[in-house]
Automatic annotation (TrEMBL):
Originating species: Oppiella nova
Sample GO molecular function, one term: ATP hydrolysis activity
InterPro entries per record: ABC_transporter-like_ATP-bd, ABC_transporter-like_CS, ABCA, P-loop_NTPase, R2_ABCA1-4-like
Pfam families assigned to the protein according to its UniProt record, in alphabetical order: ABC_tran, R1_ABCA1
Limits of the ABC transporter domain: 2-198
Domain of life: Eukaryota
Keyword Ligase on entry: no
Name of this protein: ABC transporter domain-containing protein
């Protein structure tokens, strides 16, 4: 059973089959449900699948008109979506010539035809360049805040989840690991801080190993190295008692001593919470 509040967003993270659920019921408000009002229900739902369901022989304009008529939209109002998705320059070119990112934008525009109350989005920004991704996020947030559209999306992009979702459902190997408000899940599962240390370019392995040794001496066993990549070393400091000011002071002293290039400190990320959840065999959910 799925029930959505208008203007909300929910993200079942980690399982690409979430939008293929084929049992139970779904409700839009108190008077429309999938089993008894199927036609009305579908008219109020927009869907953007993971694999773009586009007809390569049509142009972008023909695509919007085609799907608009299927949804009973016989005017050209659907073409206003092209401005939001920056498709004007290629609107009259065949879809087969579109890049992966532009195909994704067109699929999202199709999903918005008819001003649906609920949007089902499966990996909505896959293959989209960073600048366009931010534009799409702004558009989706505007839909939620201003037009009270509810969005259910699946994504493996933790930044996307934090940017768009008020509630998250974490699914791993068919098991629901956690569900709740984003901030609550982060505070419950993502302990401590993320630290990034960048050594100077050209530093040899001896220098990198010395930085790692001193980091271990300074922060102890609670500072876990996640990985290093070309002189950038990533840590998770799992001490909940550490103060941010103390961490910065310690890193400043290490920077003066070891002459590494820079460092970065942040609260433990949603990605850290996600990794903790899927690694933890205990599937009990936190109370909200």
């Amino acid at each position: 059973m799925v029930n959505t509040d208008r203007g909300s967003s929910c993200n079942p993270t980690g399982d690409p089959t979430t939008l293929q659920i084929d049992s139970g019921n779904a409700y839009l408000g108190s008077h429309t449900d999938l089993l008894t009002s199927r036609r009305l229900f579908y008219s109020r739902v927009g869907y953007c699948p993971q694999n773009d369901a586009l007809l390569d022989g049509l142009t972008g304009r023909q695509t919007l008109v085609f799907f608009g008529r299927i949804r009973g939209q016989f005017s050209t109002k659907g073409l206003r979506l092209i401005a939001a998705f920056e498709l004007k320059a290629i609107l009259d070119k065949r879809v087969t010539t579109y890049s992966g990112g532009n195909r994704r934008k067109l699929s999202l525009a199709v999903a918005l035809i008819g001003r649906p109350l609920v949007l089902l989005l499966d990996e909505p920004t896959t293959g989209v360049d960073p600048d366009s991704r931010l534009s799409i996020w702004c558009l989706l947030r505007d839909l939620m805040v201003c037009q009270k559209v509810s969005i259910v999306l699946t994504s493996h992009n933790m930044s996307e989840c934090e940017a768009l979702c008020s509630r998250l459902a974490i699914v791993s190997k068919g098991v629901l690991k956690a569900i709740g408000f984003t901030a609550h899940l982060k505070s419950f599962y993502a302990k401590g801080f993320d630290l990034i240390v960048k050594v100077k370019s050209g530093s040899n392995e001896v220098i990198v190993d010395e930085v790692k040794r001193r980091m271990n001496e300074t922060f102890g066993d609670n500072c876990i190295e996640k990985y290093d990549n070309f002189g950038v070393i990533y840590y998770n400091l799992q001490s909940v008692d550490s103060r941010l000011s103390q961490i910065f002071q310690s890193l400043n002293e290490l920077k003066r001593e070891l002459h590494f290039e820079d460092y970065f400190v942040s609260n433990a990320s949603l990605e850290q919470a996600f990794l903790h959840m899927i690694a933890n065999q205990d599937t009990s959910l936190p109370d909200e």
